[in-house]
Amino acid sequence: MSALAIIAATIIGVLFLGLLARRGTVMDLEQWTIGGRGFGTIFVFVLMAGEIYTTFTFLGGSGFAYGHGGPVFYILSYGCLAYVISYWLLPPIWRYAKQHRLIAQPDFFAHKYDSPALGVLVALVGIVALIPYLVLQLKGLGIIVGAASYGSISPTVAIWIGAAVVTAYVMVSGVRGSAWTAVVKDTLILTVVLFLGIYLPIHYYGGYNAMFSAIDAAKPGFLALPAKGESVAWFDSTVLLTALGFYMWPHSFGSLFTAKDERVFRRNAMMMPVYQLILLFVFFVGFAAILKVPGLKGPEIDLSLLRLSVQTFDPWFVGVIGAAGVLTALVPGSMILIAATTLLANNIFRAFHPQATDATVSWLARLLVPVVALVAVIFTLRGGTTIVALLLMGYSFVTQLFPTLIACLLPRNPVTKEGALAGICVGVATVAVTSLTHTTIAQLFPSLPETLRDLNIGIVALVLNLVALAVVSAVTRRRPAYA
Amino acid sequence: MSLVKYLAALPFLGILVGVPLLNRVEPLVMGMPLVLAWIVLWVVLTAVIMAIVYRFDPANRDNAEPRV
Q: Which DSSP helix (H) or strand (E) runs through A477?
């Protein structure tokens, strides 16, 4: 049970850090959600990095490497392109938000397009996309606690415990707690992942060369992209889709408001790609597991890292790995919960009750924390999909905001608010229908050539989104008086 | 800056065009499958490219006029 004891101690420590972080600041809405817009380069870096290194990378990344092989390399690629985009995308957003004292993503859209309805729509899209993201963190917590208890705590109980901890954590501290814990978390996860990624391949195979040769011999071609399915067409479309969607998440958008000045983002754009390389070691762990803990299928692939760890190490060290894993779920989980509840209270409730005071909205946001957590628990317990599949679904949703955002940053916005509403609605509806019915392009258009059939379905939604955006904008654009 | 910023297009070419062309396991490069080593190379190059862009961007000088 010593593994569980270490994890429990970590959780208590984190709650304590959250309480400490809260002292000395009056928690109004702006403090609670964006830390009063006073964080410097390092803090914003850590906060944004903290969101990227989530359970998704730790368990999902290693699991995807284990179960899918070469296609996992998309995770290393999209961040890189997203950072290049961020250099030019984030500063103008930050400037505008600061000038108008905006605290959330929907405020930005509503303000730019002068349309409260658009703000409500963007808030809804954000909440819909955040739920699978929160579900995958809870799923990860469940897997970790389950594995670290060596089966004595059932996954269901573990998920409930995880949800309770995230809820308590968020209600206690808000975003300042996230930033402090993120520092601890990133140090721990960095150490653990580097160690596992170096030790396991050497311990079991004698080195990387030997490991990859052994895998290639056992499963020829598994380490590259396959000719069908997750092929090069899937890779390119998925990388592009996720790179565009990277900063469209309400919580990423929200954390960029925490920066003190805009140069923070440009500096991060050159630092973050290197930070990405940690992912490499996560992949190595997944690959090492292929021949050592064979036979995990479907959603079980997410267990590969922990199965291999339990097989290799003493319980106390499994506890340390588990503690790192718990933090990678807690920090992003808390950011997501804050984002979702702020959206509900500030952007949906307030849109319909404009006379509500800041105090009421702030109070409501905190009250909604356990409610949203409960919804996520319900979805988590229904189970069935892998961590990566959940994240890709969320990405398909948020990427639908990208065209509207880019348009409003242009010197003369060609898109009308009706066009923006129509584009987002069409895009999101397409994603919803295709993911509920599990449609792929190959099923819709079986006669297409192989390359097009493997495209990520989110691209179809994005194309339809653009068409609706262009057509409706053209129809509703106010004609100049002389025309 | 005017020309330097076009360097930022290179990571897109390297990854979106390069990966389909070099989608192979053999030969292993630095112990890694060829396609993975290629992506790692581009991650590092992206950081270098963005550092060059940052260096030449007038918006990052201390008394810079805010860009429009």
A: none
